[in-house]
């Protein structure tokens, strides 16, 4: 098992990519803190891990609050004695408007979770890992590299995550803390349920992918497990596309 005795926090662990990664981490021997703003879904993830003989705890967090994220890290270290892996993964999409019609509140709401939440996670985890080293993994998006219509706050926040990953890796290298990111393409999770519920739209979007389908959260989790493990010991300061090549060709 590649994560034996590692202690990991996963934000957004109640659903989608976070939930799939929590299950994979637990199967690789990690003690997993499933952190989510939604206590019911977080508890469900943790319960399945425990039923399967793994170690997990659910903790409620709102990643848009620095205090809440600091408390999450403090509670984790209090419970398990250390923190080895921080997966800053919680994220939301924005209401669709052109930039000139985008409500200012909607911009701030999106950036608060997707961008500021990652900063708070890097800062709190970096402090907790200073003596021990560790790995911080941030969820960006191919939308941190490529623009689409009516997505301005999401693009702003995910573009920031790409750059924050590089900047933090530089600052934290002296503590033997690696900081990397993932940039998923279209993945079949709750965040795209609005499209999923409309089969015509969903089919059209899937057809636009390189091999005509969305990815699964498990396909992303496989990459995150690798990045978190010692197998990835020389990977640092990069954001890796998990998108079946979507960011590599013009549609
Ligand atoms: N699914 C995709 O196509 C796709 C593509 C690129 C990037 N992403 C990113 O992947 C990450 C995970 O999303 P997903 O696809 O699994 O979607 P999801 O909606 O299934 O999961 C997101 C989880 O984050 C939690 N969350 C939302 N706001 C939170 C907050 N303030 N504090 C704590 N938890 C919060 C939700 O309750 C949910 O459990 C997000 O950062 C998202 O932007 C997803």
Notes on the structure:
The chain is of the alpha/beta class. It has one domain (7-189, 216-244): Rossmann fold. The chain is 45% helix and 16% strand. The chain contains eight helices and seven strands. A seven-stranded parallel sheet has the order 3-2-1-4-5-6-7, with helices on both faces. Strand 2 (31-36), helix 2 and strand 3 form a beta-alpha-beta unit. Helix 4 packs parallel to helix 5. The protein is globular and about 50 Å long. The chain starts with 6 loop residues before the first strand and ends in a 9-residue tail after the last strand. The relative contact order is 0.14. Bound molecules: nicotinamide-adenine-dinucleotide. Nicotinamide-adenine-dinucleotide binds next to helix 1.
How are the SSEs placed, and which strands pair?
Elements: E1 7-11, H1 16-27, E2 31-36, H2 39-51, E3 55-60, H3 66-80, E4 85-88, H4 104-129, E5 134-139, H5 152-172, E6 177-184, H6 193-196, H7 199-207, H8 217-228, E7 239-242
Parallel strand pairs: 1-2, 1-4, 2-3, 4-5, 5-6, 6-7
Helix pairs in contact: 1-2, 1-8, 3-4, 4-5
The chain binds nicotinamide-adenine-dinucleotide.
Nicotinamide-adenine-dinucleotide binds at residues 11-12, 14-18, 36-38, 41, 61-64, 89-92, 113, 139, 141, 184, 186-187, 189-192.
Give the CATH topology: Rossmann fold
Oligomer: single chain
- What is the level-2 CATH architecture name? 3-Layer(aba) Sandwich
What's the story with the biggest beta sheet? 7 strands, parallel
Task: Please report which band the strand proportion falls in: under 5%, 5-15%, 15-25%, 25-35%, 35-45% or over 45%.
Answer: 15-25%
Q: What's the helical proportion of residues? A: 40-55%
Q: What best-fitting shape do the alpha-carbon axes yield?
A: globular
Bound ligands, each once: nicotinamide-adenine-dinucleotide
Counting DSSP E segments of at least 2 residues, the number of strands comes to: 7
Report the C-alpha radius of gyration, rounded: 17 Å
How many separate structural domains?
1
List the strand order in the largest sheet.
Answer: 3-2-1-4-5-6-7
Low-confidence stretches: none
Give the end-to-end Cα distance, rounded to a whole number of Å.
40 Å
- For the record, the CATH class is Alpha Beta
Family: Belongs to the short-chain dehydrogenases/reductases (SDR) family.
Pfam families: adh_short_C2 (PF13561)
InterPro entries: NAD(P)-bd_dom_sf (IPR036291), SDR_fam (IPR002347)
Keywords: Oxidoreductase
């Amino acid at each position: 098992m590649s994560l034996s005795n590692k202690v990991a926090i996963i934000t957004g662990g109640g659903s989608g990519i976070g939930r799939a990664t929590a299950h994979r981490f637990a199967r690789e021997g990690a003690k997993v803190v499933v952190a989510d703003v939604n206590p019911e879904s977080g508890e469900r993830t943790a319960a399945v891990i425990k039923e399967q003989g793994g170690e997990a705890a659910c903790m409620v967090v709102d990643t848009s609050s620095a205090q809440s994220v600091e408390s999450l890290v403090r509670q984790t270290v209090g419970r398990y004695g250390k923190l080895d892996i921080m997966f800053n993964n919680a994220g939301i999409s924005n209401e669709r408007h052109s930039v000139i019609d985008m409500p200012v509140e909607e911009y701030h709401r999106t950036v608060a979770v997707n961008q500021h939440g990652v900063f708070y996670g890097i800062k709190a985890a970096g402090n907790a890992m200073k003596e021990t080293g560790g790995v911080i993994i941030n969820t960006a998006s191919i939308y941190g590299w490529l623009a689409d219509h009516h997505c301005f706050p999401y693009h702003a926040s995910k573009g920031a995550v790409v750059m924050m990953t590089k900047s933090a890796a530089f600052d934290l290298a002296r503590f033997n803390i690696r900081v990397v990111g993932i940039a998923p393409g279209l993945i079949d999770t709750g965040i795209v349920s609005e499209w999923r519920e409309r089969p015509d739209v969903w089919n059209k979007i899937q057809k636009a992918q390189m091999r005509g389908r969305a990815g699964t959260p498990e396909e992303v989790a496989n990459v995150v497990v690798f990045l978190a493990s010692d197998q990835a010991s020389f990977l640092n300061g990069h954001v890796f596309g998990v998108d079946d090549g979507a960011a590599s060709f013009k549609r």
